[in-house]
Structures are given as C-alpha cells and as structure tokens.
Amino acid sequence: MASAALLDGRIDVGFVRLPIDETGLRVTPLYTEPLMVVLPAGHRLAGKEEVTEADLAGEPLVWHAEPSTHPTRRPHPDSGLRVRDVEEKLEHVAAGRGISFVGRSETVFYSRPDISYVPIPELAPDQVSLAMAASRTSPLADDFFTAAQATAEITAACGNYDVGAAVPKGR
Q1: 166 close to 152: Cβ distance less than 8 angstroms
Q2: If pLDDT is split at 50, 70 and 90, which confidence band does 41 have?
C-alpha cells in the first residue's frame, strides 16, 4: 500500500517499515526499533516483563493489510481481520478479537488503558526508513532526507533507537 501510494504520487515522502517492495523507490534506512506485542489489558500475558513467541502460541493475530508486515516465524490462528492503521488494530485488540505487533515508538503515541504492550525480544526489530518515488527528486526532498537522517542519529545518540542496524547513508 505505501509503495503504491508513493509511486502514484498520493504521498510525496513517507516513513515506512521494511520490508516493502522497494522497486522504483528511493529508500533510506533511519533506525531500528524493537517489536512489542499488543494484548487486551485483561490478557493472561498483559503486564509481563517480556514474552516469547511460544508464549503466544494459539493466539489469533490481527494482521496489517500489507503481508510484508507479518513479523512472526510461528504459525498463529488467523483472526480474519486485516487493518490499515494502528488505531484500527488497537480497537480490535482491545475488543479481544486477537493480538498484534507494533514498533516500540507506537507504544508512546498510542497509550490506552484497554491494551497492554509487552516486549517480544526474539522477533527481529523493525527497520524504519524514509521513502519516496525515485523518479521524483528535488532539493527540498534531499534536504528532508538529510534532516531525517540527522534527527535519527541524534535520537540514537540519546539512547532511544538503534541506528547501528541502518544501512549507511547514500544507499
């Protein structure tokens, strides 16, 4: 979805979580962040210090609409729900229709009393990148990419994210 919107001009520049189809895109990795499992507040694992994929066996998953955003290695029952954004995902989880996953930064912006976020360290971290159509270049976009990279590096220096896993500049 994000790739198509960037390529057809509905979006000029976007923050994306890899993997995505990068064909025709300029993609600049910014940072990685750990994944968190999203659980209903009353779930048996809510409030734990961390969980494993084995702990989540048998839990139905609320999937993001883009198949590339499925981070698990183990099979889980499918809730049948496909969501387009974080708010929709959290509504289904809060209602007890399944569990899901988000990057750590999303837990800061989407704090709710009816859900619980628990780290799941065995899953690979999310790679957050900046993307735009490769055919749409401009000095303004170049400046934006440079500013985003500098901001990510400053944030990492403060200990908030891991840019060490990001691909070097100029990719």
Answers
A1: yes
A2: very high
